[in-house]
Amino acid sequence: MRTLCASTLIGEFFVIGFAGLVAMKDPDLSMGTVWTVCGIAMLFSVLLCGMVTRPGGVQLGWALQIALIASGFVVPIMFFMGLVFAVLWWASLHFGQKIDEAKARFAAQAEGEAGAAAGAGGNPA
Length: 125
Hints:
This protein is mainly alpha-helical and about 120 residues long. It has four helices and no strands. It has helices at about 1-25, 30-50, 55-70, 75-120. α2 runs antiparallel to α3. The longest helix is centred in the last third of the chain and has 44 residues, at about 75-120. It is elongated, with a radius of gyration of 22 Å. The termini are far apart.
């Protein structure tokens, strides 16, 4: 799950940066404000990569998705991009969890087979 979620978050890092470039063209916004908000969001997306598996990490990821969608009020294309990344976030969580469960089953099965092979190779009394 962590790998898929981190990939989504790194993609968001770049999208936030590009949205900042678009937002700079808005005469009503100061460059300092745009880059402060974008910089914080970009930093948050990178830091969140390491926090995904910790308590509250997934919820913070959802908060970032909501903020990305809400940024569409400043840069309209972000409504679409935010929705795309929210779907990717859901898919990363959903399929990442399935992959983690399959890995755990495979590891348990391999451990069971190794234990059975070690027990069968012993001295018959």
